[in-house]
Design a protein that fits this description.
Pfam families: NUDIX (PF00293). The protein is of the alpha+beta class. It contains 3 helices and 7 strands. The protein has one domain: Alpha-Beta Complex (Nucleoside Triphosphate Pyrophosphohydrolase), CATH 3.90.79. Strands 1, 2, 3, 4, 5, 6 and 7 form a 7-stranded mixed β-sheet that branches.
Amino acid sequence: MTDATEHEPEIWRPHVTVATVVADGDRFLMVEETVRGALRYNQPAGHLEPGESLAEAACRETLEETGWEVELQHFVGVQQWFSQVHGDHIVRFTFAARPLRHHPARALDAGIVRPHWMTRAEIAALGATRLRSPLVLCSIDAWLAGQRLPLDTVRAFPPAAGG
């Protein structure tokens, strides 16, 4: 008898990522990082890990990449993107947060050069080739346009610990 899974087609799975738009006045928390040997700028962002909710992932990635603890305030939206550079399909869940506490002595994730606080104009002036993806300005512009959904728009079932 053969295993039924041997004949089932593989299911395509995009990369599930999170990002956090952290605003302080007219400045946004950005990450300068090395990607394939080049410096790029992004919001604090990364992959969802097993056992965590999207909201937990957003807070974790922000802390790991910037040293900032944040409080999520809103869900901004979902963006779908295909990276021709990496050949990856990305589904990105973007949250908005306010900064709470900075831990400047905290070691940052591998590849992270440093966090920056930048205005939208400064971010746009970097140009498309220095941004990690077009989702960077898309997320900031959605937030600036007032796109803010309740956090319970995105839920984990069963609710993750602490949620």
